Amino acid sequence: MEPGHASWSGSQGLAELLIVAGALIVALAAAWIATALAGTESLPDLATLQAVGAPPRTRRRFAAAQSAVITVTGAVLGTATGLVIGATLVLSQREQGGVVDPRWMVDVPWAWVAALVVAIPLLGAAAAWLVTRSRLPLARRLDG
């Protein structure tokens, strides 16, 4: 590299940060949508729990647990899929026409990968716990 030019590692670090931020936003949005849908589906069960005297914090714990299960599953599967696809693309570019280009290497940012796999479920569960109301609104039931 010539003197006076920006180093590759500085722009690479910014690119990694932008990719991580984008992945975090997309993953949390997907987790939030899936948790909201699962929570809507479990409203009758939660109403029954409330009717038999379960403490109000049970609903928040239930939502946080649902979000944790959804986000752990998504983070692990998404990370594994992304690593396999990324490595496949790099290795396919490395050898073209029978000539190996040593500039193409699989270089996984393990710290970022681990941070995402841990942070996404924690943030998803915390967000679900924070935004979920403790008590359900009273619903009128019709006998029929």
Automatic annotation (TrEMBL):
<dbReference type="InterPro" id="IPR003838">
    <property type="entry name" value="ABC3_permease_C"/>
</dbReference>
<feature type="transmembrane region" description="Helical">
    <location>
        <begin position="17"/>
        <end position="38"/>
    </location>
</feature>
<feature type="transmembrane region" description="Helical">
    <location>
        <begin position="67"/>
        <end position="90"/>
    </location>
</feature>
<feature type="transmembrane region" description="Helical">
    <location>
        <begin position="110"/>
        <end position="131"/>
    </location>
</feature>
<keyword id="KW-0812">Transmembrane</keyword>
<feature type="domain" description="ABC3 transporter permease C-terminal">
    <location>
        <begin position="18"/>
        <end position="132"/>
    </location>
</feature>
<protein>
    <recommendedName>
        <fullName>ABC3 transporter permease C-terminal domain-containing protein</fullName>
    </recommendedName>
</protein>
<keyword id="KW-0472">Membrane</keyword>
<keyword id="KW-1133">Transmembrane helix</keyword>
<dbReference type="Pfam" id="PF02687">
    <property type="entry name" value="FtsX"/>
</dbReference>
<keyword id="KW-1003">Cell membrane</keyword>
